[in-house]
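Summary for the steering committee. The consortium agreed at its last meeting that each partner would contribute one worked example illustrating the joint modelling workflow. Our contribution is presented below. We chose a case with several input lines so that the handling of multiple components could be demonstrated. No manual editing was applied between input and output; the record is shown as generated.
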Amino acid sequence: MRKITVLVSFLLALSFSAFAQSSHDNESDTLATKEEVQNVKGAVEGLNESYLETKAVVDAIKKIKISGYIQAQYQSAEVDGAKSFAGGDFPVTLHNRFAVRRGRVKFNYDNDLTQYVLQFDVTEKGMGIKDAYVSVKEPWLKTFGFTAGVFDRPFGFEISYSSSNRETPERTRMYQTLFPGERDLGAKIEIFPTSGPLSLFNFKGGFFAGNGTTPETDNAKDFIGRLGFSFPFEASNLAIDGGISGYFGSVLVDAVKKTYTLNSSSVPVGDSLSKYIDRNYLGADVQLYYDLPVLGGFSLRGEYISGKNPGTSTSNAVYKQTNGDVYLRNFSGYYINYVQNIGSSLQLVVKYDVFDPNSDVKGDDIGVSGSKLSVADLKYNTLGAGFVYYWDGNVKFTFYYDTVSNEKVNANAVATTLAPYKSDLKDNVFTLRMQYKF
Amino acid sequence: MKKILLALLVSVSAFGFSGNETITVKGSDTMVILAQRWAEVYMSKHPDVTVQVTGGGSGVGISALINGSTDICNSSRPMKSSERDKLKQRYNSLGVEIKAAKDGLSIYTSQSNPVSELSIDQIEQVYTGKITNWKQLGGNDSKIIVYGRENSSGTYVYFKDNVLGGADFTSTMQSLPGTAAVVNAVAKDKNAIGFGGAAYAKGIKIIKVKEDANSTAYLPTEENIKANLYPISRFLFMYTKSRPSGAMKDYIDWILSKEGQDIVTKVGYFPVK
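What follows is the complete predicted structure of the assembly.
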C-alpha cells in the first residue's frame, strides 16, 4: 500500500510538473508566434516599401523604348553595273550583291505628352542619323503638337509609311528623287483632333531647311504640309484615308550661275533673274482598306505629285548650292499599290509607278541637236510584284521583282551618254530580303 | 510518281482536315474569368476545338493581335485609333469588333466604410489626388488609400478617359496587376478605395454612383445598366484581325448566343442583348 501511495504521489507530482511546464511552454509559444508574426509583418512591409521603390524605378525605365530592325538582302540585276533605285546602282563589275539595306535602332523616351527620339542607321556603308527630334503635345485638348529637329517631311503617304512595314523593298523612284532620305531639318505643328467630326481630319505642316539631314545653307525656309482625312466604316470593315500635300520652297543659286527652264527641245536662254529658284510640289494621296471574307484584308493605295523641280543639266535630283547652272523642270508622277493578305502570314504585292521628271518633253526630243535635254529628262515606269511571308511576329521575308522601263531617246542622238537609252535598259532587279524587327 | 502524288495528297489532307482546331484568346484581365468559363463550356461541347485563354491586360492582348500571336483579343476598352492604324498596316484591315458583354465599372470600398455613394466628380477628385480624406466625402476622418490598375489594363484606360476626363492618376495610387488583387487589397483595408469589373466584387462593398451631386445614385445592377442609369457602364469587347471564319466564327457566334450570354450573367457581368 505504501508503495502504491508513493507511486501515485510520484505520478501526481510528475503530472503537475508536466502541466506547469506545458502551460509555461504554451505561453512561450504564443509569445514566440506573436514575435514571428511581427517579424513577418515587418518583412512584408519592408518588401512592400522596396516594391514601391523598385516600381517607381521600373515605371521610369518603361518610358525608354528601344526598337529597331535589320534588313539583310540579296539582289540580282540583269547586267553588271545596272542603274537602279532598288537600293542604289550596282557597281560596274557585278550584277548581284548582298547588303544590309537598313540597320536601324531607335531610342524613344516617351513621357506621354513629350517625346525624345533618336534613330540611327547602321549598315556596311557606315552610320547615319535618321531621326533626332523633340515633340511636345499640349495637355488640355491633346490635339495640338509641336515637333522640332530632324524628322520625316509631312508630305504624302509614302514618306511616313515606315520601311519596316512597307511591303515593297523601296519607295518609288518619284519619292526617292524628290525627297531623298525622307527627312529634313525643321519644325512642324500637328493637329489631330481626338473627338467629334473633326477627328476625321488632321493636319501637319511646318518650315524646313530643305537640305535633308545636311546643314542649312540659305535663309529661305521651305513650307511642307499635308491636310489628311481618315474615314473608317467599321461596320463594313472599310477605311478610306487620304490627303492633299504641298511643298512650297526654293533653292539658292549663286548669281554667277545661269537658270534654264527645260520645257522644250529648243535651246533655252539662261538667265540670272532670281537668287531663289522655286521648288514647288502639289500632291494627293488616297488609301483604301477592305477586308475580304475568308481571304483577308487588302489595300489599294495611290498617289499623284506634280510640280516644279530645280536640278542640273544631267540630274533631276534636287539642286544643291554647290552644283553648277540650275535647270528647272516641270514634273509629274504617280503610283498604284495593291496589297492582298492571304491568311495571317502571306501578302501578295503589286505596284506600278511612273515618274516623268520633265513632263513638257518627250523621249524623242532628247538628243535633238543643240537641245540641253539629257537622260535626266527621261520618263520611267516600274512594275513590281512579289510576296511577303511573315515568319513570326519579328521576322518577315520579301520576294520581289522590279521590271523597269525607260522612255527612249531620239534615234538620231549622237551623244555617247545617250546611246544606251535608245532602247530599254537592262535594269530589272530581283530582291530577296529578310527582316528582323523588334 | 502516282504514289508520291498520293502521299502528298494524304499529307495535305491530314494538315487541312485534321479536325483539331485551336483558338487562342488573350487580353483583358477583367474578362479573363468570363473567357475561361466560355472556353470550358464550349470545349466540353466541342471536343475537337481547343480554346486557350490568357490574360495580361487589354493593351497586351491588342499588341498580341497586331503581332499575330493571338487569334482573338479580349479588351475592356475600345481599340485606339493608333492601334487600328497598326492593324491596317499589317493586315490591311480595321479589325472586327465584337461587343461580347456589358460591365458596370464598379467602385469598391471596405464593407465597414460608412460612405455608400459618390458622384463621378468626387471619384475623379479622389483619383486625381484632390480629395485625400474620407471625411471630405462624409466618412471617417481617415486618409483614403487609393488602389488602381496598371497602365496596360483596359480598365485603367477606360477609367482614365471616362472618369478622370483624361487627367493623370494621383501619384499615391497603388497600381495592382489585376482586378482580383484590387478587390483583395480593398477588402483588407478599411480606408481603401478601388475600381474594377462587377464580376470580381466579393468581400467588399460596391458604392452607388451618380452622374453629379444632384442626380440619383445607382448600383451597377443589370436593370440599371440596361436602362443606362448607371453612369460608368461599358462594353467588354472581343477583337479579331479580320472577319472571323471557320471554328473561330462558330465560337464567337456561340458566345453571342443565349447559351454564351447566360454564362455572362452567371459570371457576374451583363449580357449585350
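DSSP finds ten helices and twelve strands in chain B. The first helix of chain B runs from residue 2 to 16.
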